[in-house]
Design goal:
Helix content is 48%, strand content 14%. The chain is α/β, with parallel strands linked by helices and 334 residues long. The chain is globular and about 60 Å long.
């Protein structure tokens, strides 16, 4: 698994060449809704924040079997992201979006969503197959932005995206930082990841990677909100675990992060501040690379296979037995 993280740069360059199918240009889109789960859904979380840096169009994310009705109109572009193309939550939310008259695009490696796109003449792009969904993050992000752009929904300039992925070449440095992070997390029972609101999705990515690859629970705290609740939770806490703080590209936010770092250290909590550089896309990509490598290192230290996710497989088996019931509830054809 580790070798795939180390090849992210090469894989991501490929994603700029993926063919875009059934492309249609829309000039009246007012908002974008991203539907997806897990390692695919995190693309939407990142895109929603990244887009605010470059464009006025709003990007929303929903991770369920449906999209709230008030979010779907004929001027909504719904981008369905499912690496397998078979994620039931994403399939049903996509079909409900189509029933509501939304414009829809699909990013997947194959599966039912691609079949839906082909049969309904929907814009779609097929990404590299054969990976765990969480390994395909940068490829799906690039593919999503390209597909949106070609459909007239330019949420992030593709030329900036092209230069930003160059950060993924620095795998040796990323591996060194990941080793430092993993050495801290190895001492932990429930590590905490802290970030600002703009980097919430990166904190979430760290959590998800340690959940799936390292098989450990993780807590997230987001500032400035954490200063109104989470900070108090440490005052008399019996569990003194480790904390990873993700720095910001805003000076005053880093001062607040520094304050919290010193406060936690005063409580004898071990901390690590992850310092990133570049624009927001570069920070998200490079931070995600570090998270992936670090989580594999922790799994290796624990003698675990990072690829195996037994409990997710159990959930999918339950979900399969409920598929007809779910489709009936949303009045969809199976």
């Amino acid at each position: 698994m580790l070798e795939h993280y180390l090849r992210w740069y090469q894989y991501t360059l490929e994603s700029f060449e993926y063919p875009l199918h059934n492309v249609k240009y829309f000039s009246d889109i007012e908002k974008v809704v991203v539907v997806g789960m897990g390692g695919s859904g995190i693309v939407g979380d990142m895109l929603a924040t990244i887009a605010t840096e470059f464009r006025d169009i709003s990007v929303y994310v929903f991770k369920d079997f449906y999209i709230p009705k008030n979010f779907v109109t004929t001027k909504t572009f719904v981008i369905a992201i499912s690496y397998s193309g078979n994620t039931l939550e994403t399939v049903t939310s996509t079909l409900t979006a189509l029933k509501s008259g939304a414009r829809v695009g699909v990013v997947a490696s194959g599966g039912r969503l691609v079949d839906i796109a082909k049969s309904r003449d929907i814009p779609y792009v097929i990404v590299r197959s054969g990976l765990a969904p969480r390994l395909a993050l940068p490829m799906m992000l690039v593919a999503t932005i390209r597909l949106l752009s070609e459909c007239g929904v330019d949420v992030v300039p593709v030329n900036i995206l092209r230069t930003s992925v160059e950060v993924l070449k620095s795998v040796d440095k990323a591996s060194t930082i990941a080793k430092e992070v993993s050495d801290l997390v190895k001492q932990s029972s429930i590590p905490t990841v802290i970030a600002t609101t703009r980097y919430y999705a990166l904190a979430l990515r760290f959590k998800n990677e340690f959940n799936e690859n390292s098989k450990i629970p993780v807590k997230i705290e987001i500032l400035p909100e954490l200063f109104h609740n989470d900070i108090v939770g440490w005052e008399a806490a019996k569990l003194k675990d480790v904390v990873i703080l993700i720095d910001s590209d805003v000076d005053y936010e880093n001062k607040l992060i520094g304050f919290y770092d010193e406060y936690l250290k005063s409580l004898n909590i071990k901390t690590y501040t992850l310092k990133l550089a570049g624009n927001i896309i570069e920070r998200y990509l490079y931070g995600s690379l570090i998270a992936g490598i670090a989580s594999v290192y922790v799994a290796q230290n624990r003698g675990l296979d990072p690829l195996i996710t037994k409990s997710i497989a159990m959930y999918k088996n339950i979900l399969k037995s409920l598929e007809n019931e779910i489709f009936k509830y949303y009045n969809l054809d199976t």
